[in-house]
Amino acid sequence: MALWGFYARNLDEVLHLVGQHLYLVTVSTALAIVLGLPLGVLLTRRPAWRTPVLGLANVLQTIPSLALFGFLIPLPFIGGIGATTAIVALVVYALLPIVRNTYTGIAAVDPAVREAARGMGMTDWQLLTQVELPLGGAVILAGVRVATVVSVGTATIAAAIGAGGLGVYIFRGVAVVDDTLILAGALPAALMALAADGLFGLAERRFTWRAG
Amino acid sequence: MTQPLEVDGLGYVLADRGAGAAGRGRVIVQDVSFAVGPGETLVLLGRSGSGKTTILKLINRLLEPTAGTVRVAGERTAELPVTRLRRRIGYVIQEVGLFPHFTVARNVGLVPRLEEWDEIRIAARVRELLTLVGLNPDSFATRYPHELSGGQRQRVGVARALAAGPPLLLLDEPFGALDPITRVELQREFQALQRRLGQAMVFVTHDVREGLLLGTRIGVMHAGRLVFVGTPEQFRASEHPECRAFLEAA
What we know:
The structure holds two protein chains of two kinds.
Chain A: H1 2-9, H2 11-45, H3 50-62, H4 65-72, H5 83-107, H6 111-119, H7 124-154, H8 167-175, H9 179-206
Helix pairs in contact in A: 1-9, 2-5, 2-7, 2-9, 3-5, 4-5, 5-7, 6-7, 7-9, 8-9
Chain B: E1 5-14, E2 26-36, E3 41-46, H1 52-59, E4 67-72, E5 75-76, H2 82-87, E6 89-93, H3 104-108, H4 110-114, H5 119-132, H6 137-140, H7 150-162, E7 168-172, H8 180-197, E8 200-205, H9 208-214, E9 217-222, E10 225-230, H10 232-237, H11 241-249
Parallel strand pairs in B: 3-8, 3-9, 6-7, 7-8
Antiparallel strand pairs in B: 1-2, 1-4, 4-5, 9-10
Helix pairs in contact in B: 5-7
């Protein structure tokens, strides 16, 4: 098959692009968790902020990804050509599912459990770390899972602004109308998405508790 | 003499959203005063919405009183850090509220662990308490709440509330969600527990039979006020219309 021949001949480049792709996805998802998890928790403590914050995240989500990459290029610090811009855009897309699911996961904790925790004398931090995050864990992880899978796909478009990744093959293949080349980029990206989906699925199961 | 619990002129007004100026709002509890001595169980009887559950939450500050003072073991609750206050008060609710991701042993050992007891002491205390509420520690300690029956869950709930040896126990319709047979069983065991422990208790219920069985004194709540306090005998003899209404319904 032509594809295997292509991979055999270009192994170094393939590995390099897979590495770039993984880098874009991992760094952006990690940043989105670092920002999104506290933000989601904050929304459970300040209910009045929920509508505006989730609304804004929703609006950001609707910007077509190619357009967002374009908008970011002229901006100082976070913009320009290359991986930084791509990561910023990927973080923007990953935020909504993570913030929303963090909020939803915590809000869904049985009110009786929360009342008992407070009534026993837990501090707000203990309530959060020992009760709400573990019990909301499955829903929160589902958000991270969606964010990661979407990121793997969106990161292919990052090649358009010089951030590299598997999108390089796809754009090249589209330009020269070469299916093998498109597939060379699309197949590993799809496998990567499936792997992320499977891994987070397993992690989610660890956080599934039967109602007491 | 300092009592485990003294409540004086307690009031709670729920601020109306958007009402703005002070003085507006819904009165939930008004001018409630009582004291509970060691070994005493004050049963608060009342219809739904009479404010009896609110009183418990005002004592452990899940709600902040808008008037009056509460003293637990002589200390004003308003002046204590809220977490320290609550760790001194056992709290049992109808829905139990066990942590589904904790084993029975971890649920029972919750407050001792918050109070940073060492693990050996916690383990010994957990065994002692499970035995006390009639659960064999060897077969129950490692189970999860979803593996228990309703009655077993509430036994664990009571054990959890007693864990750190609080001088005061608040119980909000603890047996209200159980089937009639289990309820009677737990009521009987609870009676035995009361005799052994000598803790002060406030027990909220709308079940007169339960109240008369478990209360050393009966308080009757009506429309946010404590309209009657007395011994079960005085309650039976009372001419107060709300007491009569409860006795006739029983």
